[in-house]
Amino acid sequence: MNISIVTIGKLKEKYLKQGIDEYVKRLASYAKLEIIELPDEKAPENLSDAEMIQIKQKEGERILQKISTDTYVIALAIQGKMKSSEQLAEDLDKLATYGKSKIAFVIGGSLGLSDEVMKRSDEALSFSKMTFPHQLMKLILVEQIYRAFRINRGEPYHK
């Protein structure tokens, strides 16, 4: 299975990079994982609604350029469906079973994802009704993907 995480914004925090690198290393025996970090749009503090939409569209265009037509897209969005780790594991297993070997998880910038990215997505996934920094979300997502593979292989993991 080929999994990509397409995200807006570069990871700068060393401790988060170390955590992500650890899970990427652990995942290597289960799947090929690629993290694609795209530049975010610089934005002033007080944005109009039109400016917010424009920024999300620019970031969305960058995201969509990195996703091929045969990729199953899961957008991380607050309004998405919440799942347990076991449900995510089951869903990834079903995708693999039905020939969806390319999966992209998409994490937007601080303003979220554009309408175009949401329309291209096959599903929206929410980890919580709370808002998390997208840098931290990368680490949480990589850990959950790793956990899903462990669950699907019947291997032990922390509950």
UniProtKB/TrEMBL annotation:
It is an enzyme of class 2 (transferase). S-adenosyl-L-methionine binds at L76, G108, F127, S128, K129, M130, T131, F132. GO terms for cellular component: cytoplasm. GO terms for molecular function: rRNA (pseudouridine-N3-)-methyltransferase activity. SUPFAM superfamilies: alpha/beta knot. Its EC number is 2.1.1.177. It comes from the Bacteria. It is found in: Cytoplasm. Pfam families: SPOUT_MTase. Its main location: cytoplasm. It catalyses: pseudouridine(1915) in 23S rRNA + S-adenosyl-L-methionine = N(3)-methylpseudouridine(1915) in 23S rRNA + S-adenosyl-L-homocysteine + H(+). Keywords: Cytoplasm, Methyltransferase, rRNA processing, S-adenosyl-L-methionine, Transferase. Homodimer. Specifically methylates the pseudouridine at position 1915 (m3Psi1915) in 23S rRNA. Belongs to the RNA methyltransferase RlmH family. This is Ribosomal RNA large subunit methyltransferase H. It comes from Bacillus mesophilus.
